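Tutorial handout. Part one gives the primary structure; part two gives the three-dimensional structure as tokens.
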Amino acid sequence: MTTPPPPSPPGEGQVRTCVGCRARAPRSALVRVVLAPHSPRAVVDERTDAPGRGAWLHADRACLDLADRRRAFPRALRSAGPVDTAAVTEWFRTNNAGSDLGRHESSTKKAGWKPMGTR
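Part two.
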């Protein structure tokens, strides 16, 4: 009989592993990459809700380069052949490597948010 995995520590949220540096990080600190429908082209899933298998990556160009060098995308996305990462590279170039990650924070961290009172 197998035992379920231990629960994650409180406040940590969902944890994913970067396919580039292999470090674990909260989901909100990573960028999700998926295959475009019916093509071997990888694209950034900015809303993190695209169907299919995803690969998680730090919003750091060094992690993207490491993932390319290690050929991590075909493995992580379970692609039968090579994966074209030109769109992901372009996304990193235009978004200054992570300036867009603030929108991934939970709704409890929005400006002006206050917890609901009990009265």
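Part three, for discussion. The chain has a mean pLDDT of 80. Strands lie at 15-17, 24-26, 30-35, 42-44, 54-58.
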